[in-house]
Amino acid sequence: KVFMIALEGTDWVTRKAWAKICEISRTEFSMVYQRLRVELEEKRNMDGEELNSKGLVEESEGARMIFLEGFNIPLIASTDLTALWYRLSEEKAEWIIYVTDVGQQQHFNMFFKAARKAGWLTDSDKTYPRVDHVGFGLVLGEDNKRFRTRCAEVVRLVDLLDEAKTRSKIALIERGKDKEWTPEELDQTAEAVGYGAVKYADLKNNRTTNYIFSFDQMLSGKGNTAVYLLYAHARIYSIITKSGKDIDELKKTGKLALNHAEERALGLHLLRFAETVVEACSNLLPSVLCEYLYDLSDRYTTFYSDCQ
């Protein structure tokens, strides 16, 4: 609270410290974004006068507060609200999704209620413009405690990604792929498998629950892992390549005859793709789509064995 008061005021020391924190964070985030090919667009156009004009903000001990019914603590009139105003009024956003750990649930409940009190949002959670808080659980170590290094420090995501890539490359070299591929191909494949394994391991779990981080499990070629899905994809692609067929032409002229039980089972599963995407998006649960893709890979593996 004291920090926020100083930041909103004219305390140049606090503002300078805040700018330094932002600079350090920006550098660290950019390392992760670069590896995951995420493009970030910064926005700085913030204006908090809209809240003042609504009469929602009260001064309390030098801080700008919003008192809300049903909560025993006030909401600090933070940049979250001014950022929301900007996204709604200037960018005309229809659906804004905030992704943080579940520990911040109360803050977002208060934040959204204040926005509704200001008239920026409707009372319905499903009416546009819409806001949602996507909370996620903790990542645990194999000791079932918060995932940390041996020195009890928080593990950096960039280090996890690099370690996954390194382990993936070692596994590929052990299989002799360094003799078949160029160094660039080896590096690209190790990156795709390593980064993909970390992302999929995070997405496949129900986002609200905690999960144990394990390189051995996520880089395994068996079970519900990205590596297993990648193998299935590679197998499909290999069959298409060896067939010499024009797939786009087959889509126009080819006919399906689902005579075998495994053909039928695979076909029926494929038909569920659209409804699965809708469910995953509507409920903000990537794990639903991951489960579908794993089941699809599993069914395809059975089909591949029984219907060669």
Task: Write a short abstract of this structure.
The chain is mainly alpha-helical and 308 residues long. It has helices spanning 2-8, 12-36, 49-54, 79-89, 105-117, 157-174, 177-180, 183-203, 215-218, 226-243, 247-253, 261-271, 273-282, 286-306, and strands at residues 58-60, 63-66, 75-76, 95-101, 130-136, 139-140, 211-212. It has four domains: 1-42, no CATH class; 43-136, no CATH class; 155-252, no CATH class; 255-307.
Question: Which secondary structure elements does this structure contain, and how are they paired or packed?
Answer:
Elements: H1 2-8, H2 12-36, H3 49-54, E1 58-60, E2 63-66, E3 75-76, H4 79-89, E4 95-101, H5 105-117, E5 130-136, E6 139-140, H6 157-174, H7 177-180, H8 183-203, E7 211-212, H9 215-218, H10 226-243, H11 247-253, H12 261-271, H13 273-282, H14 286-306
Parallel strand pairs: 4-5, 6-7
Antiparallel strand pairs: 1-2, 2-3
Helix pairs in contact: 1-2, 6-8, 10-14, 12-14, 13-14
Describe the structure.
The protein has helices at residues 2-8, 12-36, 49-54, 79-89, 105-117, 157-174, 177-180, 183-203, 215-218, 226-243, 247-253, 261-271, 273-282, 286-306; strands at 58-60, 63-66, 75-76, 95-101, 130-136, 139-140, 211-212. By secondary structure, the chain is mainly α. It folds into four domains: 1-42, no CATH class; 43-136, no CATH class; 155-252, no CATH class; 255-307. A hairpin with an 8-residue loop joins strand 2 (63-66) and strand 3 (75-76). Its EC number is 6.1.1.19. Residues 229-308 form the DALR anticodon binding domain. Pfam families: DALR_1, tRNA-synt_1d.
